[in-house]
Amino acid sequence: MKVWVDVVSPSTVPFFRSLLTRLDTCEFYVTAGMNAETTPLLNMLKLPGEVIWRHPEFSGPRRYLDVFSRLLLLGFNVPSFNVGLGFANFYVPLLAKSRWRPSIIFTDNDSSYAIHDRSITFKLADYIVCPSAISLVRLAKLGLKEEKIIQFDGYKEDIYISDFVPDSLFASKLSVKDYALVRPEATFAIYVKEKRSIVPSLLRALLRKGLDVLYVPRTSKDLMLVKGLDVHVLKIPLNGLDLCWHSRCVMTGSGTFAREAARLGVPAASFFPGDLLSVDQALIRERKIFYSRDVDELLDYACSCKRNKNLDISRSKAVRNQVVDITKNILTELE
Fold first, then answer.
1. In angstroms, how far is the first alpha carbon of the chain from the final one?
2. Are 109 and 274 contacting, i.e. CB atoms less than 8 angstroms apart?
3. Whole domain around residue 218: which residue ranges?
4. Residue 295 pLDDT more than 70?
5. How many degrees, rounded to 5, is the angle at CA 276 between CA 135 and CA 301?
6. 195 pLDDT higher than 80
7. Model-level pTM?
8. Is residue 188 located within the same domain as residue 289?
9. How far apart are alpha carbons 291 and 85 in whole angstroms?
10. Domain-located, residue 311
C-alpha cells in the first residue's frame, strides 16, 4: 500500500518516525512544510521527506496565500497514493478527497481556534485518531461525527517516548549541566491570542535565584526576549527528549515540551497563554504538569520540584502499540 504522509509541525516529526517504522508493509512518500524546526528535525531523525513550501503560522492574507500555494504544489508533486496520513493537517484530507482517496488524521487538539481549518479537516477526513482525554461531546461541538473517531488511552508524545534511550554523551553537547529548560510562548502563532510574553520576567527571576537556564527559541524574534540576560541559548537543534530528560525542570509556553517532560517523569510547568487543550488539562489534573502564568508561582515551582532519575517508559510502549494496532487495522480495512 502506498501511503502519503505530510508533516507540518516539529512536534509531529518524531511521532511519524516512530509510527512509520512499525508499519512495515507500507510504502511511504513523506512531504513536509517549512515551519520552525521541522526541516532540521527531519534530517536529524533520518525521516526522508520532500520539503514543499512553508506551512503558515501567521493570520491574514499572507496565510491564505501560503496555504493555497502549498496545496497547489502538493497537488503537482505528490505521486499517486492509496491513503493520506497527517497530524492535525488539513492539506491531507483536501488533496486526498480531490483524488478520491481516503485519509487518516491524528490529532490531540480540540481548541476552537482556526475553526475553518479544523472544520475542513474533520469533515473531509475518513478517520480521526485522538487521545481519550478529549471528550466526544467536545469533538462533536467542533463538527466531528462520532463514527469517524477512534480514541487511544494516552498522549501523542507516548508514541515516540516509547523509543527513547537517554544519550549518555548528551551533557557534553551543552554549555550547561544542571539547567532549567525554558521555551517561550509561540506568540506569532494564530492560536495564541495573548501576545505578551512573560519569559523576560521569568528568566530574570530564575537568574536571581542562581538557576542556570537553557533557553530554546523557535525563531530569531525569540532571541529579543533574552537580550542582555545571562542565559544559555540553544543554537542547534537537539533531541527534545534528551533536552527534557537532562534538565532539572521544563518550563514552557507551549504544550508539547510540557507533555514530553510529564510523560518522562520530569518536573514540568506550562505557562501557555490561552485556552488549554483537553490533553493538557488532563495532565494538570493528574498533577503531572504545573500550570500558571504568575512568575512568582513558576519560580516557587522551579525551586521546589524534585527530579526522579528512574526512567519508566512501559506505559508509553503500551500506548504506542495501541496506536500502531489502530493504524494497521484502518489500513487493512481500506485495502
1. 8
2. no
3. 170-304
4. yes
5. 125
6. no
7. 0.92
8. yes
9. 32
10. no
3-state DSSP assignment of residue 330: helix
Residues linked to residue 252 through DSSP beta bridges, in sequence order:
183, 270
Give the Cα separation of 268 and 249 in Å (integer). 6
Nearest-10 crossing angle of helices 314-334, 12-20: 70
Shared domain for 116 and 11, answered yes or no, is: yes
Same domain, 283 and 326: no
User: Is the pLDDT confidence value at 143 over 70?
Assistant: yes
CA 142, chain centre distance (Å): 20
For residue range 45-90, list pLDDT tens digits in order.
Answer: 888 889 898 877 666 677 788 889 999 999 999 999 999 999 989 9
Number of domains in the chain: 2
Residue pair 116/283 in contact by the 8 Å Cβ criterion: no
pLDDT of residue 334: 92
**Over the range 289-320, which residues count as b (16 or more CB within 10 Å of their CB) and which as e?**
bbbebebeebbebbeebeeeeeeebeebeebb
User: Could you give the CA distance from residue 264 to residue 282 in angstroms, rounded to a whole number?
Assistant: 16
Same domain, 146 and 199: no
Task: Looking at the structure, tell me whether residues 99 and 183 fall in a common domain.
Answer: no
Q: Are residues 30 and 158 in the same domain?
A: yes
Which grid cell is 134? 478529549
Amino acid identity of residue 34, one-letter, is M
Cell 491564505, located at residue: 64
Rounded Cα distance, 15 and 158, in Å: 9
pLDDT greater at residue 278 or residue 54:
278
Residues 79-126 have pLDDT tens digits of: 999 999 999 899 999 999 999 999 999 999 887 655 556 677 888 999
Q: With beta carbons less than 8 A apart as the criterion, state whether 272 and 240 touch.
A: no
DSSP state string for 143-162? T--GGGEEEESS-HHHHHHT
Beta strands (DSSP E) in 157-248 are: 179-183, 212-215, 232-233
- For position 139, what pLDDT does the model report? 83
DSSP helix/strand/coil, 269:
strand
Paired with 152 in beta bridges are: 131
